[in-house]
Amino acid sequence: LERGVEGQDLAGRHVVVSAGGTREYLDPVRFLGNRSSGLQGYALARAAVARGARVTLVAANVTLPDPAGVDVVRVETTAQLRDEVVRRAAQADAVVMAAAPADFRPVAASESKIKKASDGSAPPLALEQNPDILAEISADRQRGGQVVVGFAAETGDATGSVLELGQAKLARKGCDLLVVNDVGGGAVFGAEENDVVILGADGTSVDVERGSKTSVAHAIWDQVARRFVM
Ligand code: CTP
Ligand code: CA
């Protein structure tokens, strides 16, 4: 999807995108992590640049090269991601939380490498919850008219279908848009293609046909741009 100057619908806008998966350290060499590749967040950043936006990308443990024309801030933990995103959100017209922040972190990280016990026992792992960045940004809008976007990868379960869980999460987080990904079928992590539904707090629901993460990114910016002009 190439856009000429006439397609610069994000010109003059500053957008913050988070990408990747955070790591929570147990000791200097070990961490709890997740399989987020950062591909969708990077595709969002590139698509926003193509549409004329000034883009800040807060990247957690992503191995992809920096996209051209994007201000990239690298972080590791959910606490660092929170600090960088919250600080930059103050000046942003849109914030898109495409990152997968670890929900839990060890209550205490060991300063030295945890050694194996000779009796065959394993150390206990006490965890506490990390802050919810999306909920915080949504509740504490620092800029009028700011559009806040979250993502949800759902499988559906006994309590509800993928879309029902998505609607409940949209309401719980308080964001404007929630990009719902049905991950019940398997391969999404590191995959080239994606297929999503974009739910709006205003009751809209947009089915995005299966396609590249770039085409999904443009479909998301289409919804953000509509809300800027409304
Ligand atoms: N998110 C966040 N901060 C967290 C956890 C999640 O900002 N500590 C954001 C993600 O970036 C994503 C959205 O919230 O945009 C939904 O993430 P998800 O993991 O689906 O939501 P959770 O509230 O953690 O719920 P679950 O129990 O389903 O993991
Ligand atoms: Ca989570």
From TrEMBL:
UniProt catalytic activity: N-[(R)-4-phosphopantothenoyl]-L-cysteine + H(+) = (R)-4'-phosphopantetheine + CO2; (R)-4'-phosphopantothenate + L-cysteine + CTP = N-[(R)-4-phosphopantothenoyl]-L-cysteine + CMP + diphosphate + H(+)
Q: Which cofactor does it need?
A: Mg(2+); FMN
Stretches assigned to the DNA/pantothenate metabolism flavoprotein C-terminal domain: 10-226
The EC number of this protein is: 4.1.1.36, 6.3.2.5
What pathway is it annotated to?
Cofactor biosynthesis; coenzyme A biosynthesis; CoA from (R)-pantothenate: step 2/5; Cofactor biosynthesis; coenzyme A biosynthesis; CoA from (R)-pantothenate: step 3/5
**Binding of CTP: at which residues?**
103, 113, 131-134, 151, 169, 173
Q: Name one GO molecular function term.
A: phosphopantothenoylcysteine decarboxylase activity
What does the UniProt cofactor note say? Binds 1 FMN per subunit.
Asked whether the keyword Electron transport is assigned, the reply is no
Q: Using the UniProt annotation, give all residue ranges assigned to the region (Phosphopantothenate--cysteine ligase).
A: 15-230
Q: Which UniProt keywords apply?
A: Decarboxylase, Flavoprotein, FMN, Ligase, Lyase, Magnesium, Metal-binding, Multifunctional enzyme
Question: What protein family does this chain belong to?
Answer: In the C-terminal section; belongs to the PPC synthetase family. In the N-terminal section; belongs to the HFCD (homo-oligomeric flavin containing Cys decarboxylase) superfamily.
Q: What does this protein do?
A: Catalyzes two sequential steps in the biosynthesis of coenzyme A. In the first step cysteine is conjugated to 4'-phosphopantothenate to form 4-phosphopantothenoylcysteine. In the second step the latter compound is decarboxylated to form 4'-phosphopantotheine.
Q: What is the protein's given name?
A: Coenzyme A biosynthesis bifunctional protein CoaBC
Q: What is the lineage of its organism?
A: Bacteria, Bacillati, Actinomycetota, Actinomycetes, Propionibacteriales
- Placed within the complete protein, the shown segment runs 180 to 409 of 409
